[in-house]
Structure formats: C-alpha cells, structure tokens
Amino acid sequence: MTTEEKLQILADSAKYDASCSSSGSTRSNKNGLGNAAVNGICHSFSADGRCISLLKILLTNCCIFDCKYCLNRRSNNIKRAIFTPEEVCEITINFYKRNYIEGLFLSSGIIKSPDYTMELLIKTISLLRYKYNFHGYIHAKAIPGSNEMLVKKLGKLVDRLSTNIELPSKSSLKLLAPNKNSDDIETIMTTIKKNTNKTFAPAGQSTQMIIGATKESDKEIMQKSSTLYQSMHLKRVFYSAYIPVNKDNYLPSITTPPLIRENRLYQTDWLLRFYHFSVSEIFDKDENLNVLIDPKTNWAINHLEYFPKEINTASFNELIRIPGIGITSAKKIVSSRKYFTINFTDLKNMGISIKKAKYFITCNNKFFDNLFTINKSSILQSLIAPKKKIVQLSLFNNE
Fold it and tell me: What is the rounded distance in angstroms from the CA atom of residue 395 to the CA atom of residue 274?
C-alpha cells in the first residue's frame, strides 16, 4: 500500500474526532521549521465548525477494541492501514512546506496494547521534533490504560494532549465501549492535569463526548462538562454529534446526526466558561435545551422577572446576560457610557443585535420602537425564523 493510499484511509478514519483545537501554546522556535507561539497557528474552519488547520490523521485504524459506535472497531470489515513513524513525519513536513497545514493532530486506534500504541506515538513525534526539527503545533491523543511514564514522555513532546471520555456517563461507556474503562480515562486525565506546565503540554488538555448515542439529557451532559472543567482544568470539552456508521441493537435508530443539538451544547458551554452562568440556572426549567433558540435567549425568556435592564446603568455582568450582547459589546457599552448617554442607534453602531436585545433592555428608561410590554409568546414569535413558525408554541413551557 502506498503512502498516498494510507493517507486517504487514515485521514478519513480520523474525521470523526472533533477535539482538534489549535490554540493556546507558547512553544517558540529558534532553529527549525514551524512555530507554535500564541500567534503561530492560523485557524481555518470547515462549514460544520471543525478546525482544519491541522493535518488530522490516525497512526493506524487497526484497533483491538470493539466500541459499538466506532467505524474502526475490530468487528468492522473495513480497509485497514498503519503509518510508519517516518511516513507521518514526511507527510507532515511536505504538507507544512506547501502551506497546507500549520501543525499536526495525531491519534490512533489501539494496536496490540495501550502501551505499545503510546510508544509508537512517542517515536513518531520524537522523530518529527528532533530529526526533522519541526517546532510547529502538535496535538496528540493519549491512550487510556497506558503507563504514566509514557504519558509524561508524550506530554513533553506536544503542545496539547487530550483523552476522550467518549460518553457522558460510566454506564453508557460500559454499554457501548465495553473494552474501555472510565477509571483509566480519569487516571490519564489527572496525570496530564498534574504535569501541565510550560514544557509539558503547554496548551493544556481537552476531551470529547459523543452526543446522541445514549439517553443522557443535555443537563446531564453539561453537568459532566462543568465537573471536568473544574476538576481536570480542561481547556475545552468538544461535543460530537453521534454519526450512525454502524448497526447495533444498542445504538439509536437515526439517519442524521443531531447537529443542532450539538450546536446548542457548544453555546451552553460558552455560557458556562465566559458568561458566568451555572448549569442549574440554564436548566432550571427543563432537562434539555430548546433546539429552536439559543440557550441565553431561552434563559432570558424564561426569566423575564430580571428584565428589562437599563443599558446606561447595568453592570458588566448584567449586560453579558442580555440576549444579543456579547463580551466585546458589553465592554464597548461600559467604556462608551463614561463619555455619553447611550441610545439605540449607538447600540446598532456597536454591532449589537437589536432584534434580540430590544425585548430585554431600555435606553434612557425607554423601550425600543414604542415597545412597552413584553411577554414570552410575542418574543418567541418574533425571534423564531419564519420557516420555523409552523412549530407549535406548545413545544415551549406555557406562560
């Protein structure tokens, strides 16, 4: 099998892994190729939001595990391939020189054992760093169940390490990935957390959860994420909509991935990390997110008792909870009102979404466009896109 044939197979096999963020490293370059300093990685995103600035491949799609949701599980009759460490290095350097990529995302199926697989990953990246003198961004997947010393070796070679928890609960993991152990995953994540510094995985660690393969609610998923952010100091939790590539009695019978749900979970994750929301606040009315409207707007509609907020007096933390106003916009408001009284025209000029915000704010104690009263139904009818208005409002909680 040629290197090109292997690349086609192993790049395709890696496409289901969403956790390939490429920011946050401070690894500099004095002599050699590439640079992974803060501004050294350019970002490019595909139509579904996944990062494509990295060469994302598997070392091999051969695997001793038989996870029910995975295309590469051992029981599937698919084309298998394995790169040699030299082949990975040559592809990475050639792609980098052609300006196709800025770095490498390297994962692998489990071949022979977790330790054996980790040793192959370490050998590959060591060659890339020391023989090919590549200083660009590298994100690698640590293999649960492998020796702690191997994790430490790998962490010193890469910018980011990640270990996928795969599913939101231990019971789901046991059901769909019986060869994987949640304790092994937690152990390796803890090892990465304890060792992360300027020379060990300086960009931190991330993880991924498959969404929609099991019955956990959105609330349960976000509770898991919140716990991981706090206990493991994760940089990111990635949410990957379940893609039905296998047939199994334990898997849901769906034909299309739940991409809208995935998007809503990412929006909720953003609220937790940057907008000072808690899981209990977002899910105090329902166990699942509203797929028709973003979670911050949905929260505001369900808590009209907190609104309207006066733009010229609201605190920064109050401003960022207003639909249509983000972190940057809130900073502009706080800065601008030191010099003049803000009106709705000023808000438009700041790039704020008046369509969303107008129901929840006043400027100089006046509503936008003579709007004097607000209620849940009228806001929903206005904000839901016309093509979705056919959906009965009974989907939402009654007033």
Answer: 29
Rounded-to-integer distance, Cα 228 and Cα 243, Å: 24
Q: For residue 217, is it within any domain?
A: no
pTM value is 0.87
Handedness of CA 111, 115, 117, 123 (dihedral sign): negative
pLDDT tens series, the chain, 399 aa: 899 999 999 988 888 776 655 455 555 666 666 655 433 333 444 434 445 478 889 999 999 999 999 999 999 999 999 999 999 999 999 999 988 888 899 999 999 999 999 999 999 999 999 999 999 889 999 999 999 999 999 999 999 999 999 999 999 999 999 999 999 999 999 999 999 999 999 989 999 999 999 999 999 999 999 999 999 999 999 999 999 999 999 999 998 999 999 999 999 999 999 999 999 999 999 999 999 999 999 999 999 999 999 999 999 999 999 999 999 999 999 999 999 999 999 999 999 999 899 999 999 999 988 665 667 888 887 887 554 443 433 333 333
Host domain of residue 27: 3-209
SS3 130: helix
How far, in Å, CA of 93 to CA of 349, rounded?
A: 46
Do residues 48 and 231 make contact, with C-beta atoms less than 8 angstroms apart? Answer: no
Residue 361 belongs to a domain: yes
Residue 238 lies in a domain: no
Helix/strand/coil for 354: helix
Judged by phi (left if over 0) then psi (alpha if -120 to 50, else beta), residue 340 lies in beta
